[in-house]
Automatic annotation (TrEMBL):
<comment type="similarity">
    <text>Belongs to the HAD-like hydrolase superfamily.</text>
</comment>
<dbReference type="InterPro" id="IPR036412">
    <property type="entry name" value="HAD-like_sf"/>
</dbReference>
<protein>
    <recommendedName>
        <fullName>Haloacid dehalogenase-like hydrolase domain-containing 5</fullName>
    </recommendedName>
</protein>
<keyword id="KW-0732">Signal</keyword>
<dbReference type="InterPro" id="IPR023214">
    <property type="entry name" value="HAD_sf"/>
</dbReference>
<dbReference type="GO" id="GO:0046474">
    <property type="term" value="P:glycerophospholipid biosynthetic process"/>
</dbReference>
<dbReference type="InterPro" id="IPR006353">
    <property type="entry name" value="HAD-SF_hydro_IIA_CECR5"/>
</dbReference>
<dbReference type="GO" id="GO:0005739">
    <property type="term" value="C:mitochondrion"/>
</dbReference>
<dbReference type="Pfam" id="PF13344">
    <property type="entry name" value="Hydrolase_6"/>
</dbReference>
<dbReference type="InterPro" id="IPR050324">
    <property type="entry name" value="CDP-alcohol_PTase-I"/>
</dbReference>
<dbReference type="InterPro" id="IPR006357">
    <property type="entry name" value="HAD-SF_hydro_IIA"/>
</dbReference>
């Protein structure tokens, strides 16, 4: 068995697109990196979890894809998609939910625990006069009857759809009719709950330049809703990187991987490796702030119970959006890692030649540092400052093992 020399075990969180692959093409450094991360028996040397904002498939499918690409075994328990934390939102599981995205969205929703699921296609079929932008899909001849559906209680946005105009139109219809799109539009506000996964404005595939992500779809939906109603679209939860709830859940998976490795000492530090300063670096640093605040709160409670004067935490309070809409901490406070370090690679969205990271002292969005984060997140330049910048994932892993004093070979 591989025994670490360091007294403080650590875990690795890997982004996928732009770190391990570009579209369907593996990044050359990734295969060698993972050959070094497993022993002769194919067992991982440290806990590894893949944290992606993609969400158009099942965990099993993504694990099989990664296993093939990296030529090491990846189990579904090591894969965290943008929607994975929705398992914890049990208060919505018995509601009738409309799901938007692509891929097996109905199967994904049921797998997460949602029992009464309506897809955009099901909504189109039930109300055939709603989707009319594409003339070829308009009803021909006589007007088909409306089938009707049970009123929709909440909207779940898994990821960017293929037909943006269809999804935007029908989601707005649902929001403006309180879940019953055969009714007339109204002005009831706030609207029924909306939960969105994956806020990435941009992502990196094989093209030279970034592609629009689900975050761009959310910008369109928010703009349309406000243009029509005059009100801001509200989210019950924003899930996926960079929200804290995503890293909470990833840390739970790391803990489970550590148990499978036979570790008895809790993981003390996480290293998050990504290519997107706004999603990966911002999220890891935000979670690090959350961990520091949690430990500070614990210390203050202990000091207060011991009769010591309470200190004041000067760290900025996190918004509900940044927390992700869930306040649960997965596990006891004493088991939380001491911190989370962020490592930025240059094989994806970020490029040293094309981008300059915002400085720690800048407090405003400038033309050079346009804020690509979600509307409901703060622009804090310090959160976009990585702990380390390296060329690729192989260099990132070598750096981590060197930092922790572990042998890699």
């Amino acid at each position: 068995m591989f025994i670490p020399r360091a007294p403080t075990p650590f875990g690795l969180l890997f982004d996928i697109d732009g770190v391990l692959v570009r579209g369907r093409t593996p990044i050359p450094a990734a295969k060698q990196c993972f050959r070094n991360l497993v022993d002769r028996n194919g067992k991982y040397k440290v806990p590894v979890v893949f944290v992606t904002n993609a969400g158009n498939c099942m965990r099993q499918t993504k694990a099989e894809h990664l296993s093939h690409m990296l030529e090491v075994e990846v189990s579904p328990d090591q894969v965290m998609l943008s929607h994975s934390p929705l398992r914890m939102f049990t208060q919505f599981h018995k509601m009738c939910v409309l799901v938007s995205g692509q891929g097996p969205v109905e199967e994904v929703a049921h797998n997460l625990g949602f029992q009464d699921v309506v897809t955009i296609d099901m909504l189109r079929e039930a109300y055939p006069l709603l989707d009319v932008v594409d003339h070829n899909r308009r009803p021909k001849g006589s007007i088909p009857p409306t089938k009707g559906l049970r009123p929709i209680d909440a909207v779940i946005l898994f990821g960017e759809p293929i037909r943006w105009e269809t999804n935007l139109q029908l989601i707005v219809d649902v929001l403006l009719t309180n879940g019953s799109p055969d009714n007339n539009w109204g002005t009831q506000y706030p609207h029924i709950p909306v939960l969105a996964c994956n806020m990435d404005l941009l992502w990196m595939a094989e093209a030279k330049n970034p592609r629009f992500g689900h975050g761009m779809f959310l910008v369109c939906l928010e703009s349309l809703y406000k243009k029509v109603t005059g009100y801001e679209l509200k989210y019950e939860a924003l899930i996926g990187k960079p929200s804290v709830v995503t890293y909470n859940y990833a840390e739970l998976l790391i803990r489970q991987q550590a148990e499978k490795l036979g570790w008895t000492t809790p993981v003390k530090r996480l290293y998050a490796i990504g290519d997107n300063p706004m999603a990966d670096i911002y999220g890891a640093n935000l979670y690090n702030h959350y961990l520091q605040a949690s430990h500070s709160t614990k210390a203050q409670k202990q000091a207060k119970s011991g009769g010591v004067a309470e200190t004041v935490d000067s760290a900025p309070k996190m918004t509900s959006a940044e927390l992700g809409g869930a306040s649960s901490v997965y596990g006891a406070e004493e088991d939380l890692p001491e911190g989370c370090s962020s490592i930025l690679v240059c094989t994806g969205v970020y490029s040293r030649d094309q981008q300059e990271l915002p400085s720690d002292t800048s407090q405003t969005v400038t033309e050079q540092h346009i804020f690509h984060g979600h509307r409901d997140f703060r622009f804090d330049p310090s959160l976009m400052q990585p702990s380390f910048v390296v060329q690729d994932v192989k260099e990132a892993v070598e750096l981590v093992f060197q930092q922790e004093g572990w042998p890699l070979e």
